[in-house]
């Protein structure tokens, strides 16, 4: 988008605030992993929000996932991309409830998955370390190394039949679509 999309505003709240709003109903800290801890302002409405610098700069979402799990005080962590303005709290709660016996709980429909709207445990850290060491940076590559619970399309549909939770704002056109969706 040519700028920090997390700070792009839709209906008087930026994308980061929107995601933090969904997370605020859960216990624990809200961590934002950024290239620099100075990339984001502290959001006064979210006192549990902490910005942490990425330990593995240049390693993409897998490096960010590692950093978040490493600094988190919780064993299980709901991991969300900052560019998902239409998350569904009930779906997120359902995924958290499923996590007790798994390393990862991840939505899957057809051949699609959303690794940045999933629950990860600290039990993933050794596998992520090895993947980072091998420079294998796809988050989906982690799933072969850990115990995974897929949340299938039928389960997703009970909470989010249009799968709006997985709408990402990646382009200016996506941003415009998101603004129009909020207006409706």
Structural notes for this entry:
This protein has 184 residues and is an alpha/beta fold. The protein has one domain: Spore Coat Polysaccharide Biosynthesis Protein SpsA, Chain A (Alpha-Beta Complex), CATH 3.90.550. 32% of the residues lie in helices and 20% in strands. It contains 6 helices and 9 strands, in the order ββαββαβαβββαβαα. It has helices spanning 15-23, 60-71, 89-98, 125-133, 153-159, 172-183; strands at residues 9-10, 13-14, 30-34, 49-53, 76-80, 104-109, 112-113, 117-121, 148-151. Helix 2 packs antiparallel against helix 4 (125-133). It is globular and about 45 Å long.
Based on secondary structure, the structural category is alpha/beta
Q: So what's the overall shape?
A: globular
Number of helices: 6
Largest sheet report:
5 strands, mixed
Number of strands: 9
Model regions low in confidence, pLDDT < 50 over at least 5 residues: none
Mean pLDDT: 89
CATH topology (fold) name: Spore Coat Polysaccharide Biosynthesis Protein SpsA, Chain A
Write out the CATH superfamily name: Spore Coat Polysaccharide Biosynthesis Protein SpsA, Chain A
What is the CA-CA span between the terminal residues?
23 Å
Q: How big is the Rg?
A: 16 Å
């Amino acid at each position: 988008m040519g700028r920090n999309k997390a700070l792009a505003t839709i209906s008087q709240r930026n994308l980061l605030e929107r995601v933090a709003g969904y997370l605020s109903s859960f216990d624990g800290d809200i961590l934002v992993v950024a290239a620099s801890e100075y990339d984001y302002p502290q959001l006064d409405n979210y006192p549990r929000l902490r910005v942490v610098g990425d330990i593995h700069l240049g390693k993409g979402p897998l490096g960010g996932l590692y950093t978040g799990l490493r600094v988190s005080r919780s064993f299980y962590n709901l991991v969300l991309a900052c560019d998902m303005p239409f998350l569904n709290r009930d779906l997120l709660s359902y995924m958290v409830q499923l996590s007790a016996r798994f390393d990862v709980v991840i939505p899957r429909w057809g051949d699609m998955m959303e690794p940045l709207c999933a629950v990860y445990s600290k039990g993933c850290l050794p596998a992520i370390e090895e993947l980072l060491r091998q420079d294998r940076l796809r988050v989906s590559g982690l799933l072969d190394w850990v115990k995974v619970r897929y949340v299938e399309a039928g389960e997703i549909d009970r909470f989010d039949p249009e799968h709006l939770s997985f709408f990402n704002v990646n382009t200016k056109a996506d941003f415009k679509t998101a603004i129009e969706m909020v207006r409706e």
